[in-house]
Amino acid sequence: MNAEEIARERIRKLLQMAREVLGKDEKLSKRYVELAKRIAMRHRIKLGNKLFCKKCGTIFVQGKTLRVRVSNKIPVYVCLACGAARKVGARATFK
Ligand SMILES: [Zn+2]
């Protein structure tokens, strides 16, 4: 495994943990997202805008923190935590 693969694995785990603690500890959940973002930045890994809210750092979980609206055939992600709406395209997202 190279450094980037290790970083991706860590990001995946952090985002998973952020989902797990959601609803129990919002602060901790955001902290995990924050850490994932930091690792991504350091390794120049793109996370896209479908995983968490770029405004408040809340992890997106359909029905819990995320509502998907379609406007002119373009999906719009609405953060249920802060109300921020963002168009999401077919652009590559972190997997
Ligand atoms: Zn938000």
Description:
The protein has about 100 residues and is α+β, with helices and mostly antiparallel strands. It has one domain (about 5-85). The protein contains two helices and three strands. The chain has a three-stranded antiparallel β-sheet with strand order 1-2-3, with no helix packed on it. The structure holds zinc ion (ZN). Zinc ion binds near residues 53, 55, 79 and 81.
Beta content comes to: 15-25%
Radius of gyration: 13 Å
Mean pLDDT: 94
**How can the largest sheet be summarized?**
3 strands, antiparallel
Class of secondary structure makeup: alpha+beta
In total, how many beta strands?
3
Ligands in the structure?
Answer: zinc ion
H/E element sequence: HHEEE
Strand order, largest beta sheet: 1-2-3
Shape: globular
Low-confidence stretches: none
Quickly count the domains. Answer: 1
Q: Note the total helix count.
A: 2
Distance between the termini: 17 Å
The proportion of residues forming helix, as a percent range, comes to 25-40%
